[in-house]
Design brief:
With 109 residues, the protein is of the alpha+beta class. The protein folds into two domains: 1-31; 39-108, Copper binding periplasmic protein CusF (OB fold (Dihydrolipoamide Acetyltransferase, E2P), Beta Barrel). It has one helix spanning 2-30; strands at residues 39-50, 53-58, 69-75, 89-97, 100-108. A hairpin with a 2-residue loop joins strand 4 and strand 5. The chain starts with a helix and ends with a strand. It binds copper (II) ion (CU). Copper (II) ion (CU) binds next to strand 3.
Length: 109
């Protein structure tokens, strides 16, 4: 009898542990990937446009701790780059997708 009771106790602890783990999984899966992506704002000058890519000499971007630099950005939608050419002053929003900087909006200054 004692042995059965001990077995039941062990089994319920294991079930609780499993349940807690399953809850964690649910939380991870329930979080949509796009909802927590931070959008950063930048100001800069277009250096070059090529296809969906634009080289921008941007000012400091404090939200990322970036110094002013010239670097490539990619536009998910090529239409964002319409009318841009070397020398165009812009303000822009972007998200970091792994090591890529994806433009989400561009405004000419
Ligand atoms: Cu940069």
């Amino acid at each position: 009898m004692k042995q059965i009771a001990r077995f039941m106790l062990t089994a319920s602890i294991a079930a609780l542990a499993f349940h807690a783990q399953a809850d964690d999984m649910k939380k991870i899966n329930a979080k949509p990937a796009a909802s927590k992506v931070a959008t950063h704002h930048g100001v800069g000058v277009v250096k070059q446009v090529s296809g969906n890519n634009v080289l921008i000499a941007h000012e400091e971007i404090k939200s990322l701790g970036w110094m002013a630099m010239t670097m490539p950005f990619e536009a998910k939608d090529k239409a964002l780059l319409t009318g841009l050419k070397a020398g165009t002053k812009i303000e822009f929003d972007f998200v970091q997708d792994s090591d890529m900087s994806l433009l989400t909006s561009v405004t000419r200054k």
